Amino acid sequence: MGSLPLDASVQPLNPETFSGDSRAVVDFLTEYYRDVDKYPVRAADLEPGRLRKLLPEAAPEHGEPMEDVLEDVRRDILPGLTHWQSPSFFAFFPMNASAAGFAGEMLSAGLNVVPFMWAASPAAAELETVVVDWMGRLLGLPQRLLFSGGGGGVLQGSTCEAVVCTLAAARDRALGRLGHENIVKLVVYASDQTHVTFQKGARIVGIPPSNFRVVQTSSASGYGLTADAVRGVVDRDVARGLVPLYLCATVGTTGLGAADPVRELGEVARRHGMWLHVDAAYAGSAAICPEFQGYLDGAELADSVSMNPHKWFLTNADCCCLWVANPRELTSALSTDPEYLKNVGTNGTGTPAAIDYKDWQISLSRRFRAIKLWVVLRRYGAGGLRAHIRRHVAAAKWFERAVAADERFEVVVPRKFSLVCFRLRPSRFVGDDGEAVDAMNRELLAAVNASGQTFVTHFVVDGKFVIRLAVGGAMTEMRHVMDVWELLQGKADDVIHRYQLQG
């Protein structure tokens, strides 16, 4: 490899060097996206520690040309990646990238401001307040959750951060009334389909693990949380002298895409003085389409709502919108006022509406995420983003129909949004032997993923091993969904043939 001398003349932000290196990276990524469908979607046959064997044990003493660095990325890094932006990636949930998302990310990274206080970058802080209100209106959120209605929003890095912040706010609101020694009485409620993030968050803010209630759901409610089930659990806790603190309603659960009834749960929460959080991390993006806004009916009863534009909204990671009805409750739990910031604080600016976002999140430092989401909204417009959502929903509907029409398969739960959950159905070869049926589906999933042509993941519900196909990639078209269905059918033939021979 060549080398560049590292001496006093090096200027890290020299305009010519900046331009050359940036163009090299853009050209590299252009080539990558042009050929991404040629890579195995998931890195296969790689042993842990592979990369450590390929790379030197120490950092280089002298700088190297960007071309050499990118060649090493091509040779050593790309083969070890799971290609989340492949059009044949159907695992977990989508993590959208887009040209506009990348452009916004470049602006964020390039400007590299740290808008933790209004005074630290006024335009960055103010753009965030504008963008979260734009997003809230697109989703049809009630006015009380927007800055224009007395609430407000912030861009967090992830749902995990949003959960910890809202749990802390709920905790402090309750303990301000009860006294801090009563933290052992506070109880958090969620369904058995709710993301485990909420259990982790509850532990972080000091809620005893024994005070986290996992409320059971069933196929009768589409695996959504019912108000009756919550009432029963809450009433038992109240009778024991415990204090209901926080209830999570999920719109688009991780495993099955189930949707909890926000309004019904909101009424239960309000009756007991609980904080109601609506987690719409994945499916919230769909609410920009009028036909999906009904899933957020009752959001005016919520204390907070979150959704992740980095999942299904063409916004490169990381970006999570969190709205709260009462910002003061959030900032009371999270605010800091150190002496070294007072000389640049907003107290003396004459701008009482100024937002110090350091008080809306866990960390002090923060990225300029608002410009990324703003560029996406400006570049594609609401109409383009709705079309993006609807084409994935249409593809998922096609896939669901194809599965239902094949007697070897069954749809486990009706499709919601763009997630289809299915499996090989019990057959004459294994009867109703649940373990054997699960084994067949595990074999099918392993064979499909081992092909390198796609990547899908699984879930277990009611003891059944279920295969999930989450449609939502920025580059995914109907032909890719049709291709994965053809692959599944072929691998199903192989699995069933093996069981025929065994039978």
Automatic annotation (TrEMBL):
CDD domains: DOPA_deC_like (cd06450). Belongs to the group II decarboxylase family. The modification N6-(pyridoxal phosphate)lysine is found at K311. The keyword Ribosomal protein does not apply. This is Tyrosine decarboxylase. It holds the Pfam family Pyridoxal_deC. InterPro entries: Aromatic_deC (IPR010977), PyrdxlP-dep_de-COase (IPR002129), PyrdxlP-dep_Trfase (IPR015424), PyrdxlP-dep_Trfase_major (IPR015421), PyrdxlP-dep_Trfase_small (IPR015422). It comes from Paspalum notatum var. saurae. The lineage of its organism: Eukaryota, Viridiplantae, Streptophyta, Embryophyta, Tracheophyta. GO terms for molecular function: carboxy-lyase activity; pyridoxal phosphate binding.
